Amino acid sequence: MYDAKFVYGNFILIDVTDEKEKKKVVALLxxxxxxxxxxxxxxxxxxDVSAVAIKTPFCDFDCGRGCGFEIRERAxxxxxxxxxxxxxxxxxxxxxxxxxxxxxxxxxxxxxxxxMFDAAKKHMDEIGAExxxxxxxxxxxxxxxxxxxxxxxxxxxxxxxxxxxPLSAGLLxxxxxxxxxxxxxEELGMIxxxxxKNQLQMAKEYGIENPPNAxxxxxxxxxxxxxxxKDLFEHTKIPTINDIDLLKIGRHFRLDEQTKLVVGRNKDxxxxxxxxxxxxxxxxxxxxxxxxxxxxxxxxxxNHVRFASSVTLRYSDAPxxxxxxxxxxxxxxxxxxxxxxxxxxxxxxFRI
Length: 352
Ligand code: SF4
Known about the structure:
352 residues, alpha/beta
């Protein structure tokens, strides 16, 4: 309620504007088009939307401009507050044994979404919001966006009736805010499936420029990454964020149950390998030739120095024939190993 007084001649005019306080809603914002549209739809229905963005160790949103930059831009465009929640160790813990299994890669989508909604629920309680919205579209993703999966996610996160998926809500059971008359069902979407035709049309209507491409953003859905992640979780009791960062770069070789070799593929990866190296890791680099930096990690790393040297030389510019020298360094070791380039049949069987 706003009272404004204007003095006009000998009269005082009082302007009373009865502005109803907007109800609050929390949106899970992914940076994709669908969640932006969901926000716009709720704003159009008169809600004050706050966004929560979730990052996990497997997000691949980075655009080279810094972590989370892209999503902050989206939030600014939408004119919503943004809270970023990082799910780190607890996410890794879940990934060791996801209750609802994994998809075609190593993606535990149902458990992952449940954790995301759980984080959004905390924010909802903190700010006194009425419900949560997301850009999920019925039938768009095979693992987590069919009707039973959507219900499971609601149950797991303790949010039955409190999650509204505005793009598909017209096809889904009524939610609490609909029953309470907070939102109008007839203004909710009935979008289904993988086509983006409707969303692109809506983007045009809402003036969302350069709508982002569909998919992407999660390394766990990438089959090649999934194989490496699976290998890590099978061989390491408690993988660390550092182990996961190492999964994102290089060529990976499983040398034994407890030891791995990772060989850089370019200059940037070489720098990252050096930055990721921990006490106990062994770094290798050809002495006289341009080539990769490799990292040997694991309990038996010392036993594999000679072989890892030959593989490192193989991926360098060293000539195919003859010997080369590889510098081998760790916190308690610094030596030069003279070796030949490994031949494919000797190392390819270890490639993950
Ligand atoms: S694709 Fe990745 S981020 Fe998305 S729900 Fe699945 S596991 Fe989670």
